[in-house]
Amino acid sequence: MRVLSDLRRLLAVAGFRRLLTVRLLAQGADGVFQVILTAYLFFSPERQTTPTAIAVVTAATLLPFSLVGPFAGVLLDRWWRRDVLVGAPLVRALLAVLIAWLLLASDGGAGSNAVLFSLVTAGFAVNRFLLSALSAALPHTVPDADLLSANAVVPTVGTMAFTLGLGLGGIWQGLLGGPDEGLGGTLALAATLWLLAAVAAVRFARPALGPDHETRVLPADLDGPVRGLVEGLRHLRSRPQATAGLLLVGAQRMVGGLVLVAAILLYRSTFTDRDDPTGALAGLGLTVVAAGIAIVLAALATPTVVARSSLRTAMVGVLLLAALVQGAFAGVGSESLLVASAFTLNLSGHALKIAADTLVQHHVADDRRGRVFALYDLSFNAGLVSAATVGALTLPLDGDSPTMMTAAALALVGLAVIASRVLPRTAVGAATR
User: Which of 144, 150, 293, 343 is most exposed, with minimal Cβ within 10 Å?
Assistant: First the structure.
C-alpha cells in the first residue's frame, strides 16, 4: 500500500516523528475522553438518554470546531505554533481534572450540567487550535517534496489513534467497574496522554514550527475570518465541482449522524438491558471500531480506485453500497446490520471527504483555498449537528424507527444520483496522492 510505504519513509525524519507523536498522543486522549463523555451522559443507569440530550452533546462537540476554526488560522499565524502544541494539551489536561471534580462532586442538577457543558465546549474549542497547529506545523518538519505524502499519511494514523483511544478508554472503564465507577480513572488516563503530548511538543525549539515571522496581533484582525468566509463563498460560485463536493460531504454526514443518534439510543434501550451500561458500551464500541476500520480502508483504497476509474464512479459506488446496507438495516433492525451500516456509512463518508479535498485542491485558487477549507469545516460539522437535531425531533426514545432509517437509505440513493451528475467523469490527478 502506498500510504504504508510513505509512512515508513517519513518516519526517518526526526521532526516528523516528533510531530506525529504529539498528534497520536493528543488524538488518543481525544478518543479516551469521547468514551467518558458518551458513557457518563448516555449510559449511566440513573440518566435518561433522549435524542435531545444527544443533540445537545453533539452541538457541544462540534460547534466549537466551526465557530473557532476560522479564527484559529488567523491567530496561529501570529503565535509560536510550538507554544500552542505545548499549551493546548496542558489546558485540556486541566479541563479534564475540572470535569472529573465536577462529575464526582455534583448532584447532576441543571447548574452543574451547564458548567459541564461549558467545560466540554471549552475543551473542544482548545482542540481546534491544537489540530490546526499540527496541520500548520507539518510543512516545517518534512521536505516540500514529501508534503503531499505527509498530508495523506497523517489523517489516517490520527484516525487510528483516535479509534485506539476509544477502545482503550472503553476497556479501562470496564476494568474500573463501568461508567460511574471508572469515571475518575478514565479521565486521569486522558489527562496523562495530553500531558505526554505536551512533553513531546516541548522538545521542539520555539521557532522550529513557525510562523516564519512574528506579527503583532491586532483586535481588528479578528474580523478577517468573517470576510474570508464571505470571499470563499463568492469564489465557490464559479467552482461548481468543488461546491458539489463540499455539499455532498455535508449531506452524507447528516445521514451518518442520524444513524449514529439512532445507534446510541438502540444500544441504550433496545439491544441491551438499560441496567447494563457496560454491555451497551461494548456494543456501541464495536460499531465505532467498525467505523474506524472503514475510515482507514477508505484512506488506503480511495486513491487507487479513483486513479483506475474516476471520482464519479468511485463515489457513486460507495454511496449505493451504503444505501443497500442501510436499507437492509431499516428492514431487519438487527445489531449486526447496524454495525455493517456504520462501516459502509463511514467508508462512503471518508471517501467523499477525500474526493472533496481533491476537488478543492484541483479547482480552487491557492490564495482562496484556506477560506474554502474553512467553509468545508462548517459544512462537515453542520451536517452532523443538523442530523442530531433531526434525530431529536423524529426518533423515539428507544431509537427503533424503521421509517427514519428507510429515509436515510433513500437519501443515500439520492446523493448517489446527484454524485453521478455533478462529479467529474475522468480521474482527477490530485486524487492519486
Answer: 144
